[in-house]
Fold this sequence. Notes:
The radius of gyration is 16 Å and the shape is globular. Helix 1 (about 15-30) runs antiparallel to helix 2 and helix 2 (about 35-55) runs antiparallel to helix 4. The protein is α+β, with helices and mostly antiparallel strands. It has one domain (about 5-145): Heat Shock Protein 90, CATH 3.30.565. About 35% of the residues lie in helices and about 25% in strands. It has a 5-stranded antiparallel beta sheet, with helices on one face. About 30% of the residues are buried.
Amino acid sequence: MAKSDIKLKIPSAAFYIEPVRAFIGNLAQSLGFSRKRVADIQLVLDEICSNAVHHGSIDATVGVKLRIRIDTHSLEILVRDTGSRHTGEKSWLTHERLAEIEANRSPSSESGHGIFIAKSLADTYEIQSNAVGGTDVRVIFELLKPNNLKL
């Protein structure tokens, strides 16, 4: 398969995450990911999009951008938000804030688990501030061929 780029923009509302999740699931399945790996990819997408919508969006009209890159060896998903709802506050997830979230994560808390899930399930996980004052979260899922399966 040749490299492909898919760009999507959704309003900053949780309602729009499920259709993107379904699309990514169908795409991953057609690329040859196992059923379990498709579920992992969908869960990671759900978590990073939910964070972008709930923490990193100015309002629903600005939206959240996604860039999906596919090639013969991987599926890459970049989720970009535009910044916090709070005036004067920039990226919702700085490296300092990430360390704080990870330090305070506990089974009894409802928050902070999405980042841990994304980092645990994606083959590559990167987070950085973007030029528009928001956060970019990039995850990559490697497509393992039968001759390079890890045992």
